[in-house]
Design goal:
The structure holds 2 protein chains of 2 kinds.
Chain A (H helix, E strand, L loop, with lengths): L9 H13 L1 E3 H19 L9 H15 L4 E7 L6 E7 L14 H15 L8 E2 H6 L10 H13 L3 E3 L4 E4 L1 H6 L1 H7 L5 E2 L6 E2 L2 E3 L8 E3 H7 L21 E2 L47 H15 L6 H4 L12 H13 L4 H9 L1
Helix pairs in contact in A: 1-2
Chain B lengths: L1 H14 L3 H20 L6 E2 H9 L6 H16 L1 E5 L3 H12 L1 H6 L1 H10 L3 E6 L3 H7 L4 H14 L17 H4 L2 H16 L4 E2 H10 L7 E3 L8 E3 H11 L2 E5 L11 H13 L4 E5 L1 H7 L1 H30 L4 H36 L9
Antiparallel strand pairs in B: 1-3, 2-3, 4-8, 5-6, 7-8
Classes of the chains: A alpha+beta, B mainly alpha.
């Protein structure tokens, strides 16, 4: 305490402490904090520290910060929130190991509840990616825990207050930008079939629009589309005319149909990878056949997919799904290589995704 | 500062040669992660946990890994791991307060105990105290950006978000401020009671704070338990190491040697709050510090005394609203009063601090 002299290196240290105390913040706040950290160190230490209110200066600073976080498998990452399309920064743990499990003060039962809610959000029909609060509370009874519904309500509001879930005005829960970025490896490995990537920016979409074309797999963030429609009015993939975009089918809670949460959706986890299926099939989703292998009728195809997974993961995990019963943070060996391959595969050619899959099979 | 960094990078590059050093760096990074993540729970990090999660079977290189991790923590985050005092160390510290002779006599013992240590660690900021103080102050610009973020994300649910204070270090999002306020008051009460508070007195104080045993401590929506019974909260504080709950042997009745009798007595002793004492926990000694709590008490009391004075003055001013002459004179008097008030305040603070130190037993422990 106070034994060391104040130095200009303290700017970054103070900034990182400010980041750790928040973990998630708007880009504007992050920049203000940087400026104030410079001011504070300058004043308290009687030092001369340069500061410029420019993009380049900020980017240099963030690069420096991330260079020192990198060996620790942490990253100060820029994300765009899907609701307002504004830039935010999150301190992300990029490695899911045993140590990272402790980064939460939630109990194992609360984490299991969170996972169950996330599952229902990911499996929600009609690309709604959201869940009514009633359905969310119902998940408690499926868990082997003593949590009451009253407790679960408090826990849910804690997930919202801490920024893991969003609660809309209509009372539906959806994934926050923070959850999407912090748990992306987990989401990709557990819900690869359900997860959609934006055709424009290739980040995960849970709120946005899709193409009117029945066989077109174009999914676009609200904020990406807002920029896109300024110059173009047809689908970037299949060139279907979109007009002013008002009739484009939504992704997110606007896509939810009345009563769709009445039935719980579970995936059978007992069998091998290819056996996954959902209790309920929705006609409107069958259009995305090639996107969603869980709905592919052909047995051979699913078998191939199983092989592909086994090959990518190595022989140590033959049944990835069944083995994946840890906490969200504990996702082991989600080798980044596979992750980036997945992203690229979706990115390069959305139309020829099947080709991409077969290419990766080899 | 650039040079500083380049040197360090060179060091790392040179070190990357041997496998052994690679291994050391990898483990040091893992320990830093462990320390950062563990701190979210506010429970001390135990050495056997470090051994289990970081060291594996090579516990012999603990010191080297620990030193390397400290270097990273200091360089990147301005933080440090601090080993908490063991109970024996704390007790000796307290006895040492009674007189220097006792301390000198115990030097031989001291070394032995110090070598043992508590083997539990907490993470704390190692930044200059002036920086921390400045980083805890409200800044208009930060506050503006914070409030904007909240109202954007959340339209009407004001309950879901705790207040923010616009400081660089965001205490309100990192901690539960309401309950911490109560903790610091309890620490203050223990301190000015000479470092020990009987359970009976603790309950009495809590009652006067309108916290009878049936009371609940409130938390923000971020927690999963909105309220907590006062006893459960005290138990949590003990678990986190902020408070120490000590069972004292009944005077003369049960000596440690009289095992059977002692054991037989225990069930009744549990209920008897006269046998329980509250002290500062090791985490409070290392994270909060007696000096800071003494300052807190003095500032709080002096501030309130001055405030009471000002209110008196103002209300008397309002009374003679018609007598302008009087009012102006009153204004002048107040202007002169400002200066003397500042001096008075300093004097009062000094006196109050002296009083706190006396009440604490004559000497305050430095931050451990």
């Amino acid at each position: 305490m106070g034994k060391d002299k104040i130095s200009s290196n303290d700017v970054q240290r103070l900034f990182l402490q400010a980041v750790i105390s928040r973990r998630y913040m708007s880009e504007k706040l992050a920049k203000t904090l940087h400026r104030k950290c410079v001011d504070t160190v300058k004043f308290a230490g009687g030092l001369n520290i340069p500061y410029e209110d420019t993009v380049g200066f900020w980017d240099d600073f963030i690069t420096k910060v991330n260079r020192s976080l990198d060996p620790l498998d942490l990253e100060f990452k820029n994300v765009v929130d899907e609701v307002k399309g504004r830039k935010h920064y999150v301190l992300v743990n990029t490695k899911g190991d045993e140590i990272a499990q402790m980064a939460t003060d939630y109990t194992p039962a609360e984490i299991a509840f969170f996972k169950a809610v996330v599952e229902q959000i990911m499996l929600s029909p009609n690309l709604a990616f959201s869940l009514s609060s009633l359905a969310a509370l119902r998940e408690v009874s499926t868990l082997k825990s003593t949590m009451t519904k009253t407790q679960a309500e408090v826990v849910l509001s804690s997930f919202v207050a801490k920024g893991w879930l969003l609660k809309s005005k209509k009372g539906r829960f959806s994934l926050s930008a923070r959850t999407i970025v912090e748990l992306e490896p987990y989401l990709r490995s557990s819900y690869n079939e359900e997860l959609l990537d934006c055709t424009i920016c290739s980040e995960v979409v849970t709120k946005g629009i899709t193409c009117v074309g029945t066989n077109c797999h174009t999914y676009i963030h609200m904020h990406c589309y807002a920029v896109y429609k300024r110059t173009k009015s047809s689908c970037p993939t299949c060139r279907t005319e979109w007009g002013n975009g008002s009739s484009l089918p939504p992704i997110g809670e606007d896509a939810a149909k009345p009563g769709q949460d009445h039935q719980r959706r579970v995936r059978r986890r007992s069998g091998a990878d290819g056996d996954e299926d959902e209790d309920e099939m929705d006609p409107s989703q069958s259009q995305s056949q090639s996107q969603d292998p869980s709905q592919e009728p052909s047995q051979t195809q699913t078998q191939k997919k199983g092989k592909k997974k086994a090959a990518a993961k190595g022989s140590k995990k033959t049944n990835g799904r069944a083995a994946r019963e840890e906490t969200p943070e504990s996702e082991e060996d989600n080798d980044d290589e596979e992750l980036s391959q997945n992203i690229e595969g979706m990115d390069i050619d959305n139309l020829t995704q099947d080709k991409g899959r077969s290419r990766r099979k080899r | 500062m650039e040079d500083d960094q380049d040197e360090d990078e060179d060091e790392e590059r040179r070190g990357a040669g041997g496998d052994e050093e690679d291994e050391l760096g990898r483990k040091a990074n893992a320990l830093v992660r462990l320390a950062l993540f563990n701190e979210y729970k506010r429970t001390p990090l135990r050495r056997d946990e470090i051994n289990k999660k970081v060291m594996g079977d090579q516990t012999r290189s603990f010191n080297a890994v620990f030193q390397a991790a400290q270097h990273i923590l200091q360089k990147t985050f301005g933080m440090e791991l601090v080993e908490l005092m063991s109970r024996a160390e704390r007790e000796r510290e307290q006895n040492g307060n009674d007189g220097t002779e006792a301390g000198e006599n115990a030097t031989g013992l001291k070394k032995k105990v110090a070598a043992a240590g508590s083997k539990t660690y907490i993470l704390r900021s190692a930044l200059h105290e002036n920086l921390i103080e400045a980083a805890a102050a409200t800044d208009e610009l930060i506050l503006e950006d914070e409030i904007m973020g909240i109202s954007e994300d959340d339209d009407e649910d004001d309950d879901a978000n705790p207040r923010t204070y616009g400081s660089i270090l965001s205490w309100s999002s990192a901690d539960e401020l309401g309950s911490i306020g109560l903790l610091y008051v309890l620490l203050a009460l223990v301190l000015v009671s000479g470092g020990v508070l009987s359970d009976f007195d603790m309950k009495k104080h809590l009652k006067s704070l309108r916290l009878p045993p049936s009371a609940q401590v409130n938390f923000t929506a971020k927690t999963t338990h909105k309220t907590m019974a006062i006893d459960a909260y005290l138990a949590l504080l003990v678990r986190q190491g902020y408070l120490d709950k000590v069972r004292v042997a009944n005077l003369g009745a049960s000596k440690p040697t009289q095992g059977k009798r002692g054991r037989g007595r225990n069930p009744t002793a549990d209920d008897d709050s006269n046998n329980i004492e509250w002290k500062w926990g090791s985490r409070a000694q290392s994270e909060v510090g007696e000096v800071a709590i003494a300052d807190f008490v003095a500032e709080f009391l002096v501030e309130r005394m001055l405030h009471a004075q000002n209110v008196d003055e103002e209300s008397s001013d309002d009374d003679d609203d018609d007598q302008r002459g009087n009012r102006r004179r009153g204004g002048n008097a107040r202007k002169n009063g400002r200066q003397t008030q500042e001096e008075d305040k300093d004097k009062m603070l000094e006196a109050m601090k002296k009083g706190v130190v006396l009440a604490a037993g004559g000497k305050l422990n430095e931050l451990k």
